[in-house]
Amino acid sequence: MKSVDRICFVVYLVWFKNRRAKWRKQKREEQERLRKLQEERACGRAPLLARPPPSPTQSPALAPPAPPTPRPYSDDSDSDLEVA
User: pLDDT tens, 60-72?
Assistant: First the structure.
């Protein structure tokens, strides 16, 4: 019975050791990602998804909506919609 308890205890220790290693790896990767993001911003290269901050005189809530992007007409549409 003691050997079974010992095996369970070792498995338990290994599981926690692996879990802590995973947490450390995730934390290290997150810090690296944030560091790269800060470097990009410091070099004047904003990430592609970032928007410029609103001007101090214009509130984001009061900003006019962006105009819709025109879509080119395509006669070879795969749409199931039929026009009568």
Answer: 566 667 777 766 6
Contact 17, 23 (CB under 8 A): no
Residues 6 or more apart whose CB falls under 8 angstroms from that of 28 comprise none
Cα distance between the two ends of the chain = 80
Q: DSSP string covering the chain, please?
A: -HHHHHHHHHHHHHHHHHHHHHHHHHHHHHHHHHHHHHHHHHTT---TT--PPPPTTS-TTTSPPPPPPP----SS--------
Of 59, 63, 37, the C-alpha closest to 50 is 37
- Contact assessment for residue 32 and residue 26, using Cβ atoms and an 8 Å cutoff: no
**Residue 37, number of CB atoms within 10 A of its CB:** 13
Tell me: the pLDDT tens digits for 36-61? Answer: 999 988 887 655 555 666 665 655 56
